[in-house]
Structures are given as structure tokens and as C-alpha cells.
Predict the structure.
Amino acid sequence: MQTTTEITLPIDADRLIAELTTLSQFTDAEPSPDGTAVTRVVFTADDLRARAWLKGLAQAESFAVREDAVGNTFFRWAGSQPDLPAVATGSHIDAIPHAGMYDGTVGVLGGLEAMRALKRSGFQPRRSIELVLLTSEEPTRFGIGCLGSRLMSGTLDPTRADGLIDATEKKLAEVRTAAGFTGTLESARLAPCHYHAWVELHIEQGPLLEREGLPIGIVTGIAAPAGYRFTIEGFGGHAGALLMPDRKDALCAAAELILSIERHTLATGAIDTVATVGTCDVHPGAVNSVPSRVILQLDIRDTDPTRRESVMQAVRADIAELQTRRKVKISETLVNADEPAMCSPHIVELIDQVCREHGLTAKRMVSRAYHDSLFMARLAPIAMIFIPCRGGVSHRPDEFAKPEDISLGTSVLASALGKLAVE
Ligand code: GLV
Ligand code: MN
Ligand code: MN
């Protein structure tokens, strides 16, 4: 692994790692033998406690705090010309069930430490520098990811957003109000020129940096995600008495649908086309009852949205055949179908320059995971800084990033924010 002796900004790595560890303790997950399991779903008690703790850290630095109607939280260090569009950084602190402690959190606490390091060095920003904690990057609770950044960028209709329901049929409108975030969701929207630049620090969530022994990745573009929900309706009944020739088993049809999705995704031959059916709700969900209804959630992504759509077309042709053959009804609901985002060549080059100044070789790369940066790109020129994570593992309790890589990524972020703040 490449190291450097030219880090100029004083990153307090011990404090940053201690804060990441403290944050990981705001969790709903049972202790896990395979690492620190973190479950922190948006607007649960743990999420709210974590937010309050983070606000305390930012207030200790005298950063001004603002919260919007969906809970996006802004920590602003005022520049000498506070009316200029600010430079922003940030990420998310929500975590999918049974996840690790680095996804998103490195960008939030690393962003905070980057600002503190700039402050400690005596740096005076011309543009304000703002840390943003974005609400519900993960789709766990309301079925759609990046709620906060979608609303900020005008990508999600506020009325539709407020009507989104969680697994207990509670609407976002109700849940956010109970969490103390009131006002109309329209008010969360920011003007396209609101920020001068946006830079997000994140673990790679893939294996390439570690494999190549490189400490920093600079993201040049983010693949386009789409989400679909399929409802398969068959005919239920007694598992002993319902004769096999008479069955319309919704789960058997769902199994064929899942394999059709996998087959057509692989058939593209493209490494960038990925599809996952990550949930399968079976009704009534009893061992001695033939499944009458199944709901599947599909996550499909590609750097090329046209190719992504061609997979969906092929799957739809299979669905038509499957409905007739298995005498089930399959309905498709589109959750989201997003465009890819390109990073700003200027910010990418600026980060590369910072890396060179630090004596580092950076890898330019595509992000196959999505991030709030996908939507921040609609508000500002963006880029992302990736650091390696062990084995490329993410969304698992054994997710791990080395303290020295976190520190280095934070240092690169700090330098990049510093340069952007004087432009
Ligand atoms: C973000 O968590 C993603 O699923 O890419
Ligand atoms: Mn994630
Ligand atoms: Mn993330």
C-alpha cells in the first residue's frame, strides 16, 4: 500500500476512528460474531440519537446547524464571503439491516474531521464549507434510496414522497413529523446553483483499490440504479389437499422470475450490468400453505440505462409467458429509474492534483454503488473520493476500512475542500 509523508493537514485519526466506533453503537442490531453489526434505519430511535450526537459534535465547532423538512442536516462553517455558493461534503448515517460501520459514516465523520482539520490549520475559507447529513440514502424503510438528496434536487415529487409507506403502513409524512421534521417537502428543494461544488468521501464497497494496492479512488461517474416491485398473485390453499395439477403457486412463479432476471442480466455480458432480487415476501408465509401472493423487490443497475432497460424488456417477455403457463398474475411497479451521473472533470482533476501533492497515485473509477452524489450532481458539479475496504466487502457486519486509509481519504478531502473554498 502506498503511503505518503506529505500530508499537510493535521487529521486527528484517533478521534475520527473513536467517533466512527461511537456512531456504530447507535444500532438496533443484535451483537454479531462476524463484526460490528449496525442496523440504523431512518427515523428510528437509534437514528435520532445518532443525529443528536452528531449535532453536538458540530456545534462544539460552532458550525451553524440547519435541518430541513425531511431531516437533511446542514453544518455550515461560514466563509469570508458567505453569500457565494458554498462548497459541500457529506453522506449518510443510516445503515441497512445487519450492515457495517463505515458505509456513509466515513463521509459524514470524515467530512466533519476535514473541516476541523482545515480550521485547526488556521485556514480561512472564502466560500462557506458545509457538511450535509443526507436522510435515508438506504431504501430500507420507504423502499426508495436517497430520499434526502432526491428531494433536495427535485428528483422526487414531494407529494409522492410524503405518501411513501413503511412496512407498518406508516406514511413518511407521519414518521418525519413524529421525528420532529415538519414543513412541506417542497421546502427541502435547493436551487441548482446552490452549491459551488460537492465532494463525497466513501468506502469503495468493491475490491479494486485493495487489489491494486492503491489508497485513493477518484470517481468519474456513478452507475444508474432502478428499482421495481413485482406482485405475483396465484391461488393459495392447503399444502396437503390442494392437488398439484390444480396449483397456481405464486412462489414457484416468483422463483422462475428471479432466474429470468439473472439470466438476462448475465446475457448482456457486461460487467456493469447487475441485478438483485433482495426481498421476497410470501403470503401467507406458512409451511403448510401454498403461497398465494409474493412480492419481490428488484434492484437493477447499469452504467448504460439503455442496456438496463433492454434487460427489463427481456424479463417482461418472460413474464408474459410465465403468466400464461403458470396461470398467475404478475404486476410490475416502477419505484425509480435513474440516469447515471458524471463527475466534474474540474473537481476530478483537482482531487488528482491533491493526491499528487500528497505523493499518492489515485485510480479513476466508476462507482457501481449509488450514492447521494448521484442526485447532488443535479445541484452542483460533483466528485467522489473512494478509499479501499477489506475484500471489497460492504453491507455486511465485517465491512472494514483501515484507520490509515480513512485518515488519508479525509486528508485528501480536506485539501480538496480547501482548494474549492478559495475558488
Ligand atoms: C447504496 O447503499 C447502494 O445500494 O448502492
Ligand atoms: Mn449502503
Ligand atoms: Mn453509502
